Amino acid sequence: MSAPVYAHEAPTAAERVKDALAVAFVALLLGIPMIGLTTVDQGGSLVVATRWSWLAAFAAACFVGRLVLRFSLDTLTRRRTARQRAAGAKTVKIAGASRLVSTIGWVAVAFSLLLPIVFSDNRYVVDTATTVLIYVMLGWGLNVVVGLAGLLDLGHVAFYAVGAYAYALLSTQFGWGFWTALPVAALISAAFGVVLGWPSLRLRGDYLAIVTLGFGEIIRVVLNNWTSLSGGPNGVTSIPRPTFFGLAFKPPGDTPTFAGFFGLDFSPGHRIVFLYYVILVLCLLTNVFVTRLRKLPVGRAWEAVREDEIACKALGMNVTNVKLSAFVLGAMLGGVAGVFFAARQGFISPESFTFNESAIILAIVVLGGMGSQLGVVLASLVLVLLPELGRDFAEYRMLLFGTAMILIMIWRPGGILSKREPTLRHVKDGGRA
Amino acid sequence: MMLQMSGVHAHYGHIHALQGVDVSVQVGEVVTLIGANGAGKSTLLMSLFGQPRASAGRIIFDGEDITRLQTHDISRRGISLVPEGRRIFPRMTVMENLQMGAVLADPANLHVDLKRMFALFPILEERCEQRAGTLSGGEQQMLAIARALMSRPKLLLLDEPSLGLAPLYIKKIFQTIRELNRDHGMTILLIEQNAHHALRAAHRGYVLQHGQIILSGTGKELLASPEVRAAYLEGGHGAAGK
Question: Model pTM?
Answer without folding.
Answer: 0.77
